[in-house]
Write a structure and sequence with these properties.
Layout: H1 19-27, H2 31-49, E1 52-62, H3 88-100, E2 105-110, H4 118-131, E3 136-140, H5 146-155, E4 159-161, H6 169-175, H7 186-195, E5 199-206, H8 213-226, E6 230-235, H9 243-254, H10 266-279, H11 289-294, H12 299-305, E7 310-311, H13 318-321, H14 337-351, E8 354-355
Helix pairs in contact: 1-8, 2-10, 3-4, 4-5, 8-10
The structure holds 5'-deoxyadenosine.
Amino acid sequence: MAGRPRASPALGVADALTRDAVEHWLRETDEARLETLWAAADEARRDYVGDAVHLRGLVEVSNYCVRGCTYCGIRAGNRGVERYRVSADVVLDCAHKAEEFGYGTLVMQSGEDYGIETDWLAGILRRIRRETGLAAITLSLGERPDDDLAAWREAGADRYLLRFETSDDALYRHIHPDLPGKVSDRMAILRRLQELGYEAGTGIMVGIPGQTHASIAADIELFRGMDMDMIGIGPYLPHPATPLGQESARRQTEDDWPPDQAPSSELMTCKVLALTRLARPDANLPATTALSLVNKAGGRAHGLQRGANVVMPNLTPLREREKYEIYPEKAAVHETAAAINDSIMALLAALGRTVGTGAGARRRS
Ligand code: 5AD
């Protein structure tokens, strides 16, 4: 189980992880050296958060969205998406299913949808609290106003996820247009969430067109200083019905990438994950669905062996899930929640990892 922090004999990397060293690792191609990085991240994971993998049941509450994020398949401008918002009863069914599968916690995710009204969601949160024994409830609903965040905290939400996506300001503006008259400041919202008593989570996408190795090193440096409970890291996956997806396709065809472009590969994502584990050894880090898609055979396993200690199995009913396509194949339309659960349990057994119980909150080192 989680022991006391100690320097990593596997590498000594944790001590020597200056920003330059991080950037160097991000460019590393030598497989033997990379093995030492994986070993160090795995060891830090075992020392600080143990062998238990925390399972967080995911319910995609709504795919309505007011934003125009250029990477995201459910952006407001994508007319090809059939929009849905589930009922309170469907959320409760998912919460019960999470309990049945032995998941300690539920994550409610959606587009930035103001049809998810403050009181409606507060009512659902109270019902989950009353009707289930789930240990924690997480929200991931975009850049909501302060009053909503406070009301939902009050009603029983414990955690909130909001990735800053990239610390490169110009790139962020390019992929995440502001709403009229309102400048997006996710760092300020993350601080506010912490003030409200939420456990806060953030994260990035890896390999966004225009994102450099140096920029990802800056992201990891930022993680180091942020004191986040959770950090989600996944590869950028081009969605053909988005402006950035089309830009990716053109760049691919013309082999036209900016200097120092970081790839959106499984390998690069694993490097970022491993380095993040070393920078924030006590954080909860998911092996993301996007990582499992970029290498279907081994992405999730690699994530769990290179720093991750969380998986978020999808509980959204198939009918809605197929409409929540923020990137291609997200929906896994042929896999029921039970099938997803079976494959995750089998993977954990094969990796010699246990299933986490309870809230699986971060224990600060
Ligand atoms: N590729 C990879 N990740 C994506 N996300 C949204 N769209 C994509 C995409 N095309 C991620 C963002 C967001 C999270 C919920 O999903 O990082 O914060």
